[in-house]
UniProtKB/TrEMBL annotation, chains A, B:
GO molecular function, one term: homoserine dehydrogenase activity
Name this polypeptide is given: Homoserine dehydrogenase
Record keyword Oxidoreductase present: yes
InterPro entries to which the protein is assigned, alphabetical: ACT-like_dom_sf, ACT_dom, Asp/hSer_DH_NAD-bd, HDH, HDH_cat, HDH_CS, NAD(P)-bd_dom_sf
Keywords assigned by UniProt, alphabetized: Amino-acid biosynthesis, Methionine biosynthesis, NADP, Oxidoreductase, Threonine biosynthesis
Pfam family, one: NAD_binding_3
Species: Methylomarinovum tepidoasis
Main EC class the enzyme belongs to: oxidoreductase
E.C. number: 1.1.1.3
Amino acid sequence: MEPVKVGLLGLGTVGGGTVNVLARNGEEIARRAGRALVIAKAFTRSPDKPRICDLSGIEQVTDPWQVVNDPQIAIVAELIGGTDIARELVLGAIERGKHVVTANKALIALHGNEIFARASEKGVMVAFEAAVAGGIPIIKVLREGLAGNRIEWLAGIINGTGNFILTAMRDQGRDFDDVLAEAQRLGYAEADPTFDVEGIDAAHKLTILAAIAFGIPLQFDKVYTEGITRITQEDVRYAEELGYRIKHLGIARRRENGVELRVHPCLVPARRLLANVDGVMNAVVVKGDAVGPTLYYGPGAGAEPTASAVVADLVDVVRTMTADPENRVPHLAFQPDALSDLPPLPMAAVETAYYLRLRVADRPGVLADVARILADENISIEAVIQKEPQPGQTDVPLIFLTHRVREQAFDAALARITALDSVKAPPYRIRLETLE
Amino acid sequence: MEPVKVGLLGLGTVGGGTVNVLARNGEEIARRAGRALVIAKAFTRSPDKPRICDLSGIEQVTDPWQVVNDPQIAIVAELIGGTDIARELVLGAIERGKHVVTANKALIALHGNEIFARASEKGVMVAFEAAVAGGIPIIKVLREGLAGNRIEWLAGIINGTGNFILTAMRDQGRDFDDVLAEAQRLGYAEADPTFDVEGIDAAHKLTILAAIAFGIPLQFDKVYTEGITRITQEDVRYAEELGYRIKHLGIARRRENGVELRVHPCLVPARRLLANVDGVMNAVVVKGDAVGPTLYYGPGAGAEPTASAVVADLVDVVRTMTADPENRVPHLAFQPDALSDLPPLPMAAVETAYYLRLRVADRPGVLADVARILADENISIEAVIQKEPQPGQTDVPLIFLTHRVREQAFDAALARITALDSVKAPPYRIRLETLE
């Protein structure tokens, strides 16, 4: 089948990330979508600017309407941002019968009602997973994964810049202005940080989440919005002392007579997972009446995390364009004739670190014997715990943590350790993963 | 449009939960799906057994083939479990052109390849979100939400019973056998706990997750499986001492020459979110090459959490049966003509708790004055921090935490507090949510 031709509007962070992800994972994505995707044409205002991506094979144009008007292009990905020209281009693409994928939260929050109505009339899709919480598929989760629930409330850390600032204020005892300046140097915050630190960006996203959760229209102007600029180091410390952490949350709650829509700083009990979401990461807690509390966590911004959501939307659209409805999503994600024969590996080939618990005779030289056997197999030791014997006992626990090693080598060492005279009970080992 | 008729196989925990969720949320679900769902017929072996759900309007039958053979029924929900009769019934339903929704992980892990092949031939859908991690929509996340990624690895707490036991061993210093007995009393563990504590249930689920993540066939027999029965209180304590927690994980990792598929106890750094997933909750970390690390958390079992996933699958099927492909999922989750006019509430009507930071004169009676104003507005105080003045300062910080109250009442109190002579700087308040 012919590849599906995609037109990009914008070659900045998200556009560049999208080009890179499609180039790197194109084959795997085609196995999932049932059809290849190619970026045929890309609009950029400044064609000579250095890019994060390789543009070979992509026609660059400096007039965005050359993308929107191209009859070869089936899907337009709007990655410019803002609400002026983006709105016109998206409506123009819909008018011409093209499907649209967008990462533009302001556009959806402010003009979504209009855009969706036009798309329904024209029978085209408008997908916007990348507009909220970057790579976390929270739109799909709410629209489809939790479709059986009456959503009671949701609360999210949906602005990475704000969370980066609050995390640094807590971890490093620094003041708001100081951390903001660093965030600007690192590129996490804009030169004009108003959208992030005053909560406007989060309010755009909350508008979208609340509409999907409760089945209400998009109504950005009804969101109460308060930023984080007045939080002091003192507040951060008192919150800790009281068992809380300060997070900047978007909260939507269903009440009997209406819905609460609010973005503001919030104390959260320190033991909650949401209180432990740090740095630029995002997370959304959704409470459904059937499922109970659920949480979705991941990078909320950045080139490739956002591109992950853009490409997921492209795959969604391509699957719908290409497959019979019943086979839209393959059972095992990949097309049945495109499964891989990558073999499951034997445990001997697995690489992991280990915790090893021994019970050994309480006499000199035992630790040296065990350490020698581990060294013989090239197993590095990360930590050792040796305890004094309990009254009346002649043997003691001896605990090792190792660095990563092949299980085959560890098992060989373990067999020799088990055979030592000084080892008094069958050893027990637990694998250790740092999950990085 | 006619409602879609669903036939249930099984009226136990998950079947009963599904009946309840559809009864309670039926109107909202129809607004999402574009069409009503009704359970027309339900098979149960023991029609006189007490149920957790109201069965009025549902025809009960004691022969499951009466459900499968009923030409009125468009979707069969298989909620019996096990692999013998369930396999025959599912294949029988597919043969008769019915769509299938199942919560049966063993069935999919062991017979999925056969079932999916038959379903594709017959052009029917087989959905199985409820088979892994209960109400967490992890299948949809992997198949669709992360479709742009090359998945590098995933690691999950995917057996609630095992996690309940390990959590209690850590928090309460109890031994495995003791906690297992309690889990059995509470209904979290079966009389024969082998499937849970030996990792077989987790291996079924890991088989499914790995196939979807990597595009490999289902191959349960290749999963290395080790249980938690040999973990002692000693191990739990040493792990803590070293900065780790012990979790029972299912891990699938892509390597150059193959895939690791393994279920075993694992030390995880204590600061990781996954290490802080406690009790019967489940969570899966997925590392994609574009998105980075993401985490999905929620209840992994139980009547309604599992029903949440069953009903989401039913909605998926109904949307595909009913809508044009382009309009399969409404933009805002609910059908455009079925949005709600639930109004956004003014902040004055919001109920929340508050942190209040004051700077007050260091003299007797100030705390009493503020407390009196709060009491006048019926605001209960949860905690107070009053600090000594710094050398050379005449005013001191005074911090309050309040219980939940209407914002209107809090604002009224705050205006009076701000006007006090003894209050030396503009007060600052942060809302507080327990997220329960």
